[in-house]
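Aggregate trends can hide what the representation actually does to any particular protein. In the encoding step, the backbone of a single protein was reduced to a row of integers, each denoting a local shape. The record that follows shows the chain in one-letter code together with its fold in token form.

***
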Amino acid sequence: MMNKKYLLLLVLPLLYFGCTEDEPIEVEVINTDISVSKNQNEIFWIDEDDLNNQIANSFTFNFGNAQANEITTTVEINENNTEVTASISLKPEFQDKYSDSNLSNNTATITLTQTSLEDPTITPPSPSIYDLSAYDDLSSLDPIDVPMKIHIVRTNSGGGNFVLSEIELNNYLSQLNEDFAPAKLNFVICGDINYINNSNYYDLDDNNQEDEMGNTYDIENVINVYFYGQGATSRGHFSHDGIDRFRVNTSQLLVRESVFQHELGHYLDLYHTHEIWNNTNIELVERSNCSTAGDLLCDTPADPRLRTGVNVNNFCNYIGNEIDANGDSYTPLTDNIMSYATQCRTEFTEEQLERVAFVAREVRSYLSFDNCSNISLSEIQLSGDIDFDNVLIGQTETRILTIENTGNESFNVTNITSSNPAFTIVGSSITVQPNTTVEIPIQFAPTQEQSYSGVITIDNTANNANSSNSTIQVTGTGFSNTNNFSNISVTGNLNFGNVEVGQSATETFVINNTGNESFAVSSINFPSSAYTANFTAGTINPSSPQEVIVTFQPTNEQSYNGTVTINHNADGGNNTISISGNGTNTNTGQPNLIYNDYRITSDDNNNEIVEAGEDIDFDIQLQNTGNTTATNIEVIIDTSDPDINISDNDRIYDDMPAGDLEWNGGDFDFQVSSSCPTKTVTFTMQIISDQGSWTDTFTINVQGANNGLPQVYATYSPRDSCSATGSSDDYRLDLNTIYYRTNWNIDNIIGYGSDGRRGMWYRFTTTSAGDYTITLNMNGNPGYELYTVCGAAPIATRDASNGNSETATYTINAANTDIYIRFYDNNDNSNVDFGIAIEH
């Protein structure tokens, strides 16, 4: 029976007492545009929790000029769970107040596709095929190169808001190779990048579209990687699928940098850490079934299915209360790349690395470069000024040997030796990527007043390696002078390579004083005004090298080569260094919009310094380094920093002719949390115009609430051994910076040493001789040791108190030297909180 609603009208007599009728009040209608948008076209979901979590992160509501209490928003799933629709509208009582100028964007619909672990596209192969016994010592493996064909999908016009530049691609590939390096795998781009201009594939809808695209563009016997703009989520294929392909949603990649590594992990038969074998066998926390359940690995703790913002907080701490079938609470790895803690993923475990090493060599051994066009052999080339001139006996001077790979296939340096013990090498085993250089410090420490000479030999796997191009002469002179004497030497590599016109790059060189008396630098001459330096004059004291940062910003498409001359009053030495760089312009006939500068327009105390707890208004200046005018320009900014809340992220710019500089109209706006430490915040920019789109980044320094040293979350966790800190900057601590981690579970990550302690390793590099103060705070009873050589005895040990802090100052009489620090908790806590700082 239909319910009827009746409105009772009470007619009351109106009594007029000689009053006049009021003039009608004119109400101004406010124009606005409320809307709802989606960030993908299809959601693949497993269970109800998964579906709800993905929906919550898929729609964005824009209230325009209206207030939240004046708006109604709904999200509804249809009866058969195949579509979800979000809508936005003005509440009835406010529909006369506003005029919504565009009703077409008041709804958004996403297709829903339920999947399961029984789906053959994601079901793991049988664990019986894996015999990893030969892979339990990864260090004994020979490195291998693996071909990877890159396909970048754009819109029909060759544009799109989410299109990787070659620089961005190379950065992502470099990080991917670093993460897979312990498995001795190096992924090399196969031939030229394949650009696909197809709007349907750019907005990828489903797996059928992926298969259609792959059937058209896949190259046989290489890994095909498709970077498409948006739509369907990223997806990999296991080896049993018989498909050499995986896809990466670029809009996801820009906010979840580990997506690339995650999908390649699937391709190499790594499963999610929350995987359920055959959809029935759930891994137990105590791991008795770890080899047959979960991800089939026993050094990845049981995972209840991590979700950032649900059971993992912004500090990458697990905050869930899930329990397993035995009633045990989970202690998962939130930083594991194969988890769903999407903002925290940085690490593989040892067994995961063993599996990918096995699959690449045994299961997918057919991968080859045979079908890669434009592949040339790796080629080694040596350069550098390693003629040391005069060095005072008892002192050490460092110069740089540059190893360059002029080919487009990587090669490995397995050892570097010197024929004369007066010359020593810092570093030995490295991988040199295509078209890159690696700097190797060579140190000269004379013991007698005489001339020294020797040969530096580089053992390497480059295809053109021979005794001529893999060796280089080194010379130097030791002197003893009881009188005052100053001696200048210059070291470094100022080869900038290609830099886009209007953009900039930096390199460094060092001014050394190898004498025993100070000298003055009066000026530094460069061959072109395209080069500038942060240091041009000052005093150089003995054994106190001065680092000079050189910025190259070309203004024309040309070469900028020549010599840098340091003007000085030293008694002797070498005062020049070669410099080279090329200005390039790859945007012929197109605009090219880049970030140029920012300015603070308003802050709470009007000191133009961004501080914790403040509301900041600021402008961003763009530069058009292209050759034509850019029109209808919009900039959208974002940041993943949890201490920053952006409230106004979208601004419009006037049209920009070639070469123009332009500030935005209106202000960008963000708020800094009151507990924000001192740090540098990185923002990303999406720059959109009628002619194309670009991405860029910029940084803003924040003065933290502590008013002390900057505090940095230790994204890269400490290593399990001294040698594992390697040559990567990821495990090198910057001076005068606090590095911290909280609630870091070190079980099955950090092993016990011979002293019965679980030692955690980092390293730092001295900048000059002098005092270094080391402070360590832990949630237990901390101690630490310092080493100059891995495997040798410690040069210092600090374990003096029973409290939770250790501080000591040490005099280190060596510059540019790596010091290894091993720290530990005498209480042997499994969940570790630490803060460590080296001040100088």
